[in-house]
Please model this.
Amino acid sequence: MAVVFIGGTEKITEETDLNSLSYPVVFEAEPLVGINYALSKYKPDLTIDLSDEPVVGYIERFKFASYILKAGVSYLGADFRFDPPIFHDIVTKPSISIIGTGKRVGKTAVSAYICRLLEKAGLSPLVVAMGRGGPEEPEVLEGKKLHITPQFLLKASKEGKHAASDHYEDALMSRVTTVGCRRCGGGMAGAPFISNVLEGASLANKLKEELVIFEGSGSALPPIRTDMRVVVVGADQPVEYIGGYLGPYRLLISDLVILTMCEEPMASQEKVDLLKETIGKVNPDLKVIKTIFRPRPLENISGRQIFLATTASLKMKGVLKDYLEKEFDCEVVGISNNLSNRPKLKRDLERHKGKFTTILTELKAASVDVVTSMGLEMGADVIYMDNEPVVIGEDGELEDALVGLAKESISKFRRRKKRGKSQERRKKYPN
Model:
């Protein structure tokens, strides 16, 4: 359809030589400007990269890939091919995706927070969560009706379910209806290799709630077309994961960035500033809200001797201990950061046996089959905790931004629905 000339004049006597091609030729000083222009003007299905070193290298090609995939176009080279993730347009309600730039950046905590916030605002949300430990068939948990106790979760675990899967966590932390789904594998651009999220979305369409939150898994994206997207970025991640590889693709398709873990020792102020600058260069329209996580026990822990089980970094031990003791009037006698490592977690619990009266744990990884099981056997109380995002700096109110995003998703859905009806009428009555 067209050719974008991006440089390499040593084999060409004059640029006018390219005009002998039987295709339109786009000339721009900045290659990406020319590529974006051609994508917009010619709307191709495929971009073929016939360039090479020294004109472009690995860094430039990944940047090209992010913008090409954002346009919904495949990108083919001599020995590589990237295809854009397919987002199926099957949701019959306003919807928002919560995606991430990696594992352990806080997507589920953000998702649960958003649901509590939207429920409070009267917007009636439900969650469709996908995870590697999700159910074989989509499963509905009614967060408002279920009494999710340690015994309830332990029973589910013994029945062969992954009772610490994201949809259990969402139901417990947000108390809204959740649909649990399974996925396996994740491509560089975020497409899952297999999933039952489409079936989960169809199930969500039939439920009474009015707004659907689709929660990604790791850096894998829900394969569903949604009206808005929130991308969760961890400040502890390498900057090149955000501004390089296919990090820019996730920024380009999103409407809001929640930057988590913006504190020492996870990330210095210089690192946080650099990440914010990097995000701004990729997508200047994105609002970035800086946050930190703080534990929120679901029950009263005042006066208790606490053993804390968490997936948080070892670096955060002191911060978490000080916060819990100060805010909740308890004594933290032991901490394990090995919630994702069952053998080490068991050793940590055994080492502190007899020192604690209560186990405080996130609902993740081995929190049910190891922590809850061993805790009850030891005669301790087991209390679950949420990780709540807290805004820092002067980046605006998180609540206002998220409620505004939800309302925009409703407006956008209504506009799409109206356009769809108009197109149907034109097809039915062409004259």
